[in-house]
Amino acid sequence: MKILFITSQPPSATGSGGELRSFYFLRAMAQFADVHCVFSSPSPDASFSDIESLAVLGVSAISREEFGPGSARLTRGGRLNEIYSLLRREPWSVADYASEQLRTALHSLVDKLEFDVIIARHTTSAYWFLRDKGLAAYLPRLIVDVDDVKVGREISQSPRVRLDRWMEFLFHRRLAKAGAVTTASDDDKVYIERLAISDHCVVVPNIYIPPDEHFSRHGVNELNLSEKYILFCGQMSYGPNEEGLRYFINDIWPILSGMDPDLQCLVIGRGGSEALAAAAREAGLDYRGEVASTAPYYSAARAAIVPLLSGFGTRIKILESLYCGTPVVSTSKGAEGLAVSNDRDILLADTAGEFSAAVIKILQMTPDQLTTRIANGRELITRHYSEDAVVNGLREAIHLLDRSPS
Question: What's the pTM?
């Protein structure tokens, strides 16, 4: 079987969120198929430090640089481009992926290599299959991963953003043309089926596999950390992560630091603004931004915190915490979609006071209590979030293609 995998996020064994999900998809597919990967990102990472990891998996990587230079955006610019997208009822962010170079490359690839299955990691990566009549013939072979399909319902501030999210919803409705869709949780599957986005939906859960020595770039002894710290980890350019960190800084940290003045909070993750970093440091947090590998930081932390108030996503940060043996305190929203039990696998808290008390509870646990909590978390991963779950989910989605209407 030959599979074309299209992703806007360079797959990375040491990345976060969508980068890890893309990597795990490729790792799973490489077990039963000949896989070719195309990066559709409008801003590809020229260094792409994990390109060698795909070669190890036996995946053929095709970057945007291999099919011609040029902007990823439509030739129309600024306000005119937004008006054009509005007339087509497409979200403005989609224009970033409406590259003629990408369309030409996809035509060439599907005609020349005759793929049995095409998988697009994110709706925007499926753009040309949903819009180009010349690629429409491949829709019955197309699987689209829509792990963030509900995000537009949550993040709505200005009228302009609300309009863009509404157009994003309309664009998602086009997924009914695809052979199948995959998503990260049962909750998202219910949402997708209820809104008739697709009748052929399969849950492919997120997982966490620790990077082996081939990918390890940072030792614990190099971290220069305090002995008593909690960890916030996330891609700060993602709105809900920034919102969650600001909620922690403004509402939770004043209470928590008053309860335990010796406690430190470390913040890691790329993409944050200077204003966010300044706010964190002014509040007394140790804001470090991007790090080479997150696992050592999780392993050394007394607890991981996930104070999210909105958004939908991969939730891999919680799985990584549990695998590393780090107790987790999260809001209900932050753990949404995961099969976790409160006060068994993690602690859930939805007010600033409850969140602070939950962190203190973990800090005061006895060694036996911590051992039990760590064992519960790892059992959860083994039971629900193993690599076999990804392999089986993708196989099921591919099987659905044979039953989808042409």
Answer: 0.78
